[in-house]
Structure to design on (530 residues):
């Protein structure tokens, strides 16, 4: 199979009474659900994933995009989470170069402020030890200025540099889903689990409602897994009234690279609350993040950055670069995500809550929430261990790699641009060859300062279950966040692509543009009153 599950075909077969029985149904199309689908297929189970919106629409397209051990977990004594995370980071760097890539972090020191250089050296040495590497190093002020022009040198006492990794979070979900589908799994976006089915008080399936279909469909499954992240209490509360999720919002702002041209990550502590802040390069832009506060709003409405968060992030940046201060009008776009944190009830301060995952089993429903992008494989293994008793014997397998290394070198794919070739192989595996074959020369050009191309847009519309324009501009690619005005300059080229593969006419195209612009203005731009 080349592309994603054919949504219309599968839904209409279900309506006729086919595909109603499954070994595993996974609810939630973020990285947690995608990882479970992948591991379930590897074991030979008949598995289906259901996502109420688009794949990765929830938190998994709105993270800081770091594949990391999380130094702050180490600093707060959470050795297990840090160790597992750095080991998973190494695994992902080895298996998916081009999708998960190393990047240098510079953690700056200011005289009189904690933590100092020597405390950090100890922490970073433990960090390296967990990963089996030795790469942390001290840089003095002069060397720092070369990497971060204009960095305030008042009380500056150099920085420790260490290596972590970055990923396009949405593309990580897409790649895991794609590999699961190639391996015989099924995944449907825009299909909501509206209720659970119970037999003798035990969960035995789900009732689904797909967007643009009027009928409900009932599906049976040996195991139902609730991997709905910040939404997890909702389905779990059907069988257990306990509330465990504390939704915490984190927001980022994006500025044009020209205002802060950096290739490494700058890390420092916010002047107000001493939380760690990152300024980092991403897709031809510079990103500043993040915040961490209780999110009391309706989870059905996409999260948006608030005025207070914009001010907090601008203040953080301007404290480091006071000679070239940013204003809100410099901001290209924003994003806000909701962390599915397991609340402890004892921490008033959101940033003190632990960030590991939990798995609960209630009357046949297995719920998983919390955790990180970085540890998604380990989370999936914990979930399948909890489901084991209800499943048939798993198929034997020897290769436990999450991603198969493509049998082609980046040079042979794109002789002139090895890095771009690696990027395509990391994101699409062997499908990178078809992407290049199916696009014209001009479609292979980078768009703006990003490394995205129309070739990828064409591929996504044809093969990656794109239902709306926003799926393409905000998740299959991130052009909507990285180009000015939400990438509206691309409309003519995108219209031609959409009209050749989707059964869209002029009216539908206009509706999609209007839907996309409404979403962009409300949730990926500055707060309306700014
Ligand atoms: C600001 C921020 C920064 C972060 N930075 C990092 C980082 O740098 N590195 C890192 O490792 N982690 C990071 N994280 C954490 C990481 O992003 C999350 O742990 C992870 O994305 C959670 O994935 P998930 O699949 O559990 O949840 P989600 O991605 O939210 O997926 C759950 C899905 O379930 C769907 N759903 C809900 N109800 C239903 C239903 N009834 N039927 C069908 N579908 C349903 C939702 O639409 C959603 O798409 C960050 C998180 C935030 C918020």
């Amino acid at each position: 199979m080349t592309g994603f599950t054919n949504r219309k075909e599968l839904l209409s077969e279900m309506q006729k009474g086919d595909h109603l029985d499954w070994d595993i149904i996974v609810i939630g199309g973020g990285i947690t659900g995608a990882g479970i689908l992948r591991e379930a297929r590897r074991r030979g189970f008949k598995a289906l994933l259901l996502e109420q919106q688009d794949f990765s629409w929830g938190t998994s397209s709105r993270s800081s995009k770091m594949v990391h051990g999380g130094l702050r977990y180490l600093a707060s004594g959470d050795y297990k989470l840090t160790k597992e995370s750095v080991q998973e980071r190494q695994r992902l760097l080895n298996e998916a170069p081009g999708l998960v890539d190393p990047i240098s972090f510079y953690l700056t020191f200011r005289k009189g402020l904690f933590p100092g250089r020597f405390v950090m050296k100890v922490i970073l040495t433990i960090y390296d030890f967990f990963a089996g590497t030795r790469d942390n190093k001290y840089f003095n002020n002069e060397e720092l200025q070369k990497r971060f022009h204009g960095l305030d040198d008042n009380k500056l006492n150099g920085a420790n540099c260490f290596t972590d990794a970055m990923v396009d979070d949405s593309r990580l979900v897409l790649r895991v889903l794609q590999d699961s589908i190639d391996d015989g799994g099924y995944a449907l976006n825009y299909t909501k689990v509206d209720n659970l089915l119970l037999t003798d008080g035990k969960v035995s399936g789900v009732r689904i409602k797909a967007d643009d279909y009027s009928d409900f469909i009932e599906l049976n499954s040996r195991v139902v897994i609730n991997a709905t992240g910040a939404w997890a209490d909702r389905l779990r509360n059907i069988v257990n009234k306990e509330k465990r999720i504390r939704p915490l919002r984190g927001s980022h702002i994006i500025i044009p690279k020209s205002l802060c041209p950096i290739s490494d990550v700058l890390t420092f502590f916010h002047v107000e609350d001493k939380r760690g802040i990152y300024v980092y390069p991403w897709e031809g832009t510079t990103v500043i993040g993040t915040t961490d506060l209780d999110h009391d709003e309706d989870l059905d409405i996409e999260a948006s950055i608030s005025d207070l968060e914009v001010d907090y992030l601008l203040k953080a940046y301007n404290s480091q670069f006071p000679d070239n201060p940013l204003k809100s009008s410099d901001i290209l776009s924003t994003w806000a995500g909701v962390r599915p944190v397991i609340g402890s009830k004892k921490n008033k301060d959101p940033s003190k809550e632990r960030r590991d995952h939990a798995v609960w089993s209630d009357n046949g429903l297995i719920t998983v929430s919390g955790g990180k992008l970085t540890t998604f494989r380990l989370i999936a293994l914990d979930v399948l261990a909890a489901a084991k008793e209800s499943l048939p014997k798993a198929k034997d397998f020897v290769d436990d790699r999450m991603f198969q290394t493509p049998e082609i070198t980046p040079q042979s794919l794109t002789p002139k641009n090895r890095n771009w070739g690696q990027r395509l192989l990391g994101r699409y595996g062997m499908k990178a060859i078809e992407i290049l074959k199916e696009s014209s020369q001009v479609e292979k050009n980078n768009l703006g300062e990003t490394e995205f191309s129309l070739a990828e847009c064409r591929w996504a519309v044809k093969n990656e279950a794109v239902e709306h324009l926003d799926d393409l501009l905000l998740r299959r690619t991130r052009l909507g966040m990285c180009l000015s005005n939400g990438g509206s300059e691309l409309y003519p080229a995108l219209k031609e692509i959409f009209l050749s593969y989707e059964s869209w006419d002029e009216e539908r195209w206009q509706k999609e543009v209007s839907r996309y612009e409404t979403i962009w203005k409300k949730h990926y731009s500055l707060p309306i009153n700014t």
